[in-house]
Amino acid sequence: MIVDYHMHLRGPAGPDGAEPLVHTLDAVERYVEAAAARGVDEIAFTEHVYYFRQTRDVWHIPYHLERCVHDLDRYVDVVVEARRRGFPVRLGLEVDWVGERRERLAELLAPYPWDLLLGSVHEVGELPIDLEPGVWGELPVEAVWREYFAALCELAGSGHVDVIAHPDLAKISGRRPGAAVVAELHERVAAAIAAAGVAVEISTAGLRKPVGEVYPDEPLLRGLRERGVAITIASDAHGSELVGESFDRALALARRVGYETVSVFHGRRRRQEPLG
Ligand SMILES: [Zn+2]
Ligand SMILES: [Zn+2]
Hints:
The chain is of the alpha/beta class. Helix content is 34%, strand content 18%. The protein starts with a strand and ends with a strand. The structure holds zinc ion (2 copies). The site of one zinc ion has 4 residues, from loops.
């Protein structure tokens, strides 16, 4: 079994490079075809939670408020209808860590029939780590890493998500603290994720970023494997052409570290299937 459990349902990029959110069955079919062409058996759509006006309550920075205009019911209905028709698709969402607003966000998401919820940390304080200059212009590298992983530990333990997305996103720009600090943070987050009983994704998105590497680092994945943490595979595609991209790299990493199974989620319940 090969899954791609992280992607954003978008239309073709416009002349300005923007990729519009397109929540239609036609768009779903494009992704399903792309997945089949790359040998991916099942995909999950995991749109960013801040794109939906139903979640407006929890946002207060312009980046989120400007995007919070789409209809969550429409998105859910399209994916559920595709699932009903027998397409190998799952309904998910990429849920940002929102600190003390997490209970409110969980309450807003509770009524929907999710197959899986990804948990992500994209900001430290209120500044992005995945945009430049973002938090990198404000804080030393080690402080960014420490705060990022502290948030990730809290997110894992929140009970609100099933899979940790791009687990070491802090390396996105290639900036890293010293090896001892990296090892300490890997150790701490692996323990927190294992204690929480959530899975992590192996994401090929990092190959398209300045760091040019899969998330997570091999030593971190080894620590997770040793503690019995399960995995999914993820492209984080923002367009159908990226579904299943570079999965040979993700699968090779998983096997090198000793993984033989992959997690499959239906109705937020996990089962293990042979990997590959
Ligand atoms: Zn993300
Ligand atoms: Zn994503």
